[in-house]
Amino acid sequence: MSCYVYSNDSTVQIPFQCNNVNGSANLLTGEVRYSSYGYEPDQSPTQGFLVLFCVGFAAQLLLSIYWKSWWTLPTLAVGTALECIGWGGRLWSIYSWSWDMNEGGYWYSDFGAFIMQICCLVIAPTFFSAANYILLGKIMSNVGPEYSSLHPQSFSTMFIIADVVCLVVQAAGGGIAGTANTTNGANQGAYIMTGGVIVQLVVTVLFIVVFVEWLWRRKRYSPVKKQFNPFARFYKKKSSKPNHQSLSGSGSRSGSGLNEDGNLETENSSVVMEQISTASRLGEKNKKIHSRNSPNLNENSPRLSEKNLKLMIGLISAGTLLIVIRSFYRAVELADGWTGPIAINEPLFLGLDAALMFIFVYLYAAIHPGLAFGRKLF
Predict the structure, then answer these.
(1) What is the pLDDT of residues 142-172, one digit of tens each?
(2) Alpha-carbon torsion angle 106, 336, 327, 211, nearest 10
(3) Strand 106-108 with 256-258, pairing
(4) Residues with Cβ < 8 Å from 142, sequence gap 6 or more?
(5) Residues linked to residue 5 through DSSP beta bridges, in sequence order
(6) Cα–Cα distance between 137 and 299 in angstroms, integer?
(7) Which of 23, 153, 156, 206 has its CA 20 to 30 A from that of 317?
(8) 16: helix, coil or strand?
(9) Mapping DSSP to helix (H, G, I), strand (E, B) and coil, where does residue 10 land?
(10) What does the DSSP assignment read for 271-297?
């Protein structure tokens, strides 16, 4: 087999003796050259993680259905599915590996497979973050919405919108990289993806701030004085009208009632008003005691047990830590483009991305949010 390069004037092909043995070096530089990855991905861990994430996807899908936790389908299940697709693309790259005899010889893999794996593996944790945002919003609404400066109605909405922005930016960067015809164009896509990862990291830090504030206030029984609720207009407001019928009924038994103007009218109105005032004070006192010891303003759902509450708080804490470490790694990795020293280091990728997301997927399968907020299918 012959390899060749062009002469300095780019008109004459200069032949070289070469071979296609795996790991052959470039005859001009003496170094082994790889396209896309900068190294040849190891097949064994690639196959292993592909199987593990596919099993994890099946688990997330079945658990979402079993617990009727439909919101985990577009978050946990979709994120795990993207991990499967990404690792499938990585395995495709390995199977497409071939020796290109041009320019002294280098190892080539399908560029589409490379873009498929990088885009899916970078974007997937965005859906995992969305699961955390929704889960914490549910916890807040159930066991203490008064302890967050951000109203639960707006909490999940704001963070989900931010998550979608991160997703769009990262997808745009992946699209630019995938359609680029030059290395500079591909690197530009990588830089845009880096921006999306950095924004996601910032959003996650803000999420941690709100989370920690809620935990601190709830532990100290210190409700906020005023909540920020920018999306209140998009939610239906429940009107709280006085129950005239009950007042009228109780008044009729004591010689009192409501006149045409809605005012209390009774033969002994001072006594009745004093009784109402006393009952009101006792009610407010009992309400404060109940809020302090068992805060739950969501009357439409049963209060979360202390055991499940601790499980969910621990789950969110561990999951968020995994996402932060992984996002920091990805931001540093992509900042130097596809050929930076971190981007071409496979052990770092396996340890700071693959392993962390594997732990996340199986952690959320072992302690599924449906344990706290789901309803068994059978």
Answers:
(1) 998 999 999 887 888 899 999 999 999 998 9
(2) -170
(3) unpaired
(4) 296, 298, 301, 303, 304, 373
(5) 14
(6) 15
(7) 153
(8) strand
(9) coil
(10) HHHHHHHHHHHHHHHHHHHHHHHS---
**Pairwise CA distance, residues 98 & 113, whole Å:** 14
Instruction: Supply 338's token pair.
Output: 């596809």
Residues 305, 142: Cα–Cα separation, whole Å: 10
- State the CATH class of domain 41-97+110-234+301-373: mainly alpha
Strand, helix or coil for residue 210: helix
Average pLDDT, the chain: 79
**SS (HEC) of 299-336:** CCCCCCCHHHHHHHHHHHHHHHHHHHHHHHHHHHHHCC
Percent of the chain surpassing pLDDT 90: 48
> How many alpha carbons fall within 13 Å on the CB side of residue 167?
17
Q: Is this model's pTM higher than 0.90 or not?
A: no
Q: What are phi and psi of 69, to 5 degrees?
A: -95, 80
Non-local CB neighbours of 371 within 8 Å, separated by 6+ positions: 67, 308, 311
- Condensed to tens digits (0 to 9), the pLDDT of residues 227-283 reads 888 877 777 554 344 444 443 444 443 344 444 443 434 444 454 445 444 544 544
Question: Residue ranges of the domains in the chain?
Answer: 41-97+110-234+301-373
